[in-house]
Specification:
- Mean pLDDT is 92; it is low at 8-23.
- Helix 4 (108-119) packs across helix 7 (196-212).
- This protein has one domain (3-15, 41-212): Peptide methionine sulphoxide reductase MsrA (Peptide Methionine Sulfoxide Reductase, Chain A), CATH 3.30.1060.
- The chain is globular, with a radius of gyration of 16 Å.
- It is of the alpha+beta class and 226 residues long.
- The two termini are 31 Å apart.
- 41% of the residues are buried.
- It has helices at 3-16, 53-60, 83-86, 108-119, 145-161, 188-191, 196-212; strands spanning 44-50, 66-74, 94-101, 127-128, 131-132, 138-142, 171-174, 178-180.
Length: 226
């Protein structure tokens, strides 16, 4: 979605008022049958795409064991990793978040559990909420074969449960590069909690996280400004 269309949608949301906000659906799902065991070691990263990166970053900032959540772009070239270009939907990029985490506190599988349960609807193809286009696709960008194996097995496991009612369309692609988004996109929910888009689309995700997966939730957000 280009910036002018998004601006129009934000005006519509603002005209409805905060009382019209409605909670996004969260899905209670099992933990991954295949996962890395938690163990002390250097920080690891996961790169995930699930719609507008404002909400994805906001959710993972509340996950225990996460040291940093950085909004950015993945799937395309460095030369086109700019918001105005990516929003046109022709760069190959997806709005993504790079999650840096302590593998002794949270596992890669638990990160994927949060991703599928409360971050987004993995059955929507090339869209999330009011945002449409390949730049808003559901995708897991794996850093190594183990991440690929865990992600692929978990998608198959979740499809077998029928929890989502439709098949998961999340892509599992190799990570070719991750490029940080512009500074004004970072910590967006923390900085702008009353922004109409945030109120309608992203605050419900954080509330769902706290309610649905309380053992993984941390109250204080980990922000880049600290």
């Amino acid at each position: 979605m280009n910036s002018s269309i998004r601006a129009f949608l934000l005006l519509v949301c603002a005209s409805l008022g905060p009382t019209m906000a409605f909670a996004e659906r969260a899905v209670v799902i099992p933990t991954p049958a295949l996962d890395n065991p938690k163990a002390a070691g250097p920080p690891q990263t996961a790169v995930l795409a699930g719609g507008c990166f404002w909400g994805v970053q906001a959710v993972f900032q509340h996950l225990n064991g996460v040291q940093r959540a950085l909004s950015g772009y993945a799937g395309g070239d460095r030369a086109t990793a700019e918001y105005e270009m990516v929003s046109g939907g022709r760069t190959g990029h997806a709005e993504s978040v790079q999650v840096t985490f302590d593998p002794n506190v949270v596992s890669y599988g638990e990160i994927l559990q949060v991703f599928f349960s409360v971050v987004h609807d993995p059955t929507q193809l090339n869209r999330q909420g009011p945002d449409t286009g390949t730049q808003y696709r559901s995708a897991i960008f794996y850093a190594d074969d183990k991440q690929k194996e865990i992600a692929t097995a978990y998608i198959a496991q979740l499809d077998q449960t029928g929890k989502f009612g439709k098949r998961i369309v999340t892509r599992v692609d190799p990570l070719r590069g991750f490029y940080a988004a512009e500074s004004y996109h970072q910590d967006f929910l923390v900085k702008h909690p009353t922004h109409p888009y945030i109120v309608f689309n992203d605050l419900p995700k954080v509330r769902n996280f706290e309610r649905t997966l309380p053992k993984l939730y941390r109250t204080e957000a980990v922000t880049l400004s600290r």
